[in-house]
Each structure stands twice: as C-alpha cells, then as structure tokens.
C-alpha cells in the first residue's frame, strides 16, 4: 500500500524539496545547462516560486557552500562570510588597507591532495617528499574589499565548488552594486562561480549595476510555469495525499 502524506508535506512552504516537485523544461533544463557553462548564475523571480528548491534539486550539498545574505552587510562583511563558510576563522585586524577598510586575518587548515596521490594532510602538518612539500595551515591578512585577496584565499583553501548567495535581494543596494563589480573580477581572474538567488523581477538586474557583466552571467526566471507544469505539480500532489481536486479548481 502506497504511503499517504499530510497536505503540509506536499503543498505549501517547506524547508526541503517539495515531494511534488515538477520538472520544468524552461527552468530545470536551463539550470542543468547553466551549471556546465563557465558563467555566474542568477536565479530570480517572485517569492515562493521554487528558486531554492531548483538549486537543491540539481546540486549535491558537497558541491557548494551557502551564504545567506543579511540586510546590514556591506561588501567586506559579505566576503568575510564567504570565507567563514569555507572554513576560515576571520578576525578583525588593526591594519587599514588602501581601500580604507580594516583588514581581516583569515586562518584555516585544509585537507590537500598532494602530488596527485590522494594523500590527506591535516591542519599544521607538513608533508615532505621527493617531489616537494605542502603545508596545509593557512593564515592570511586580507583586505575584505579587494576581490584579488578573496580569490587568493579561495585558492589557498583549494575550494572547487559553487558559492551560493541566498536572499541576495536583502543586501543594501550599495552592497549589491559593489558586488556586481567584484563579480566581473571573479569571472576574469579566477575559476570561481557564484549562484545568486534573489527576489526581483528584472532579468538583468546585476547587469544594470555593472554593464561589464554582459555575457558573463546567465539568468533563470523561476516564475516561468506553463499550464502543463502546474497541472503536473497538482497531479503529483493529489497522488501523494490521496485526493482528487475538481478540474475547474485546478484550471482556475
């Protein structure tokens, strides 16, 4: 006998991927294709349209780090939070950078694959061999407003996944604009890719902040739902909770 679920487990707001998740050709296919491109990805649309579920459905948790943005953050605070998610301990420094921002000290220990042999090194360990040596303890003094310093920290951490910025729309406008400038540098000077998720309706919002992002950013409109896709989600939900809705209700 098939399991019957509660209505709240199928329809409505959920922290997990909805049980009646419907694959949308114009959205899910674009997501899959975008992950293979060497471009930053912006997933935008109205609230509760499946933006976060889209990311969770197509990426394994081991493939990315998530930073949930706050409405009080400036660019240095945003970049510091990215470093924290990578495993760095971030402390304020007394040194002032040329940008005028206070520098930060980022410390961390990261496992490394040495010499291509898959040998793991722990924090503070130095491995020496015939072909060289590598120390995995990292301590950097950085300008959190300098994208070049952040790229250096990402490289030292040997990070290879995506960086997801959830609730990007919460950031102050000035922070969004400064990040749009930094985003071009991430594309030009590194291999790192951001997935930016926000509630807005303009397709080229970040490009409006920085025209140089044209061709460097792919956008996905999470508001795109065809009638067939909506009916598919309803039909899957009907089966899960063992009910059948009236056809007029489903259509309207």
Describe the structure concisely for a colleague:
The protein has 252 residues and is α/β, with parallel strands linked by helices. The chain is built from nine helices and ten strands.
Features of this protein?
elongated; five-stranded parallel β-sheet; 2 domains; 33% helix; alpha/beta; Rossmann fold; 252 residues
Description:
With 252 residues, the chain is α/β, with parallel strands linked by helices. It folds into two domains: 14-86 and 159-251, 3-Layer(aba) Sandwich (Rossmann fold), CATH 3.40.50; 87-144, no CATH class. 33% of the residues lie in helices and 23% in strands. It has helices spanning 7-10, 28-35, 51-58, 75-85, 147-156, 173-189, 205-209, 227-241, 247-251, and strands at residues 40-45, 64-68, 89-96, 102-109, 126-129, 132-135, 137-142, 162-166, 193-199, 217-221. The strands form three sheets. A five-stranded parallel β-sheet has the order 2-8-9-1-10, sandwiched between helices. The protein is elongated, with a radius of gyration of 22 Å.
């Amino acid at each position: 006998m098939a399991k019957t679920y509660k209505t709240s487990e199928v329809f409505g707001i959920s922290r997990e991927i909805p049980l009646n998740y419907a694959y949308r050709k114009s959205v899910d296919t674009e997501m899959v294709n975008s992950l293979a491109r060497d471009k930053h990805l912006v997933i935008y649309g109205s609230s509760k349209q499946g933006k976060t579920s889209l990311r969770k459905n197509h990426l394994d948790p081991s493939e990315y780090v998530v930073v949930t943005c706050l409405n009080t953050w400036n660019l240095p605070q945003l970049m510091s939070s990215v470093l924290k998610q990578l495993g760095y301990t971030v402390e304020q420094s007394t040194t002032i950078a040329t940008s005028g921002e206070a520098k930060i000290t980022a410390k961390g220990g990261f496992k490394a694959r040495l010499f291509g042999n898959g040998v793991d090194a722990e924090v503070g360990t130095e491995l020496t061999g015939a072909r060289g040596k590598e120390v995995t303890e990292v301590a950097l003094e950085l300008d959190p407003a300098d994208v070049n310093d952040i790229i250096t920290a990402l490289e030292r951490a040997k990070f290879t996944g995506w960086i997801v910025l959830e609730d990007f729309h919460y950031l102050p406008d000035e922070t969004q604009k400064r990040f749009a400038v930094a985003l071009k540098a991430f594309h030009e000077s590194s291999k790192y890719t951001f997935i930016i998720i926000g509630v807005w309706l303009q397709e080229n919002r970040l490009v409006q902040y920085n025209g140089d992002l044209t061709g460097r950013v792919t956008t996905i409109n999470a508001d795109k739902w065809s009638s067939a896709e909506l009916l598919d989600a309803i039909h899957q939900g009907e089966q899960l909770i063992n009910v059948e809705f009236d056809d007029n209700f489903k259509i309207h």
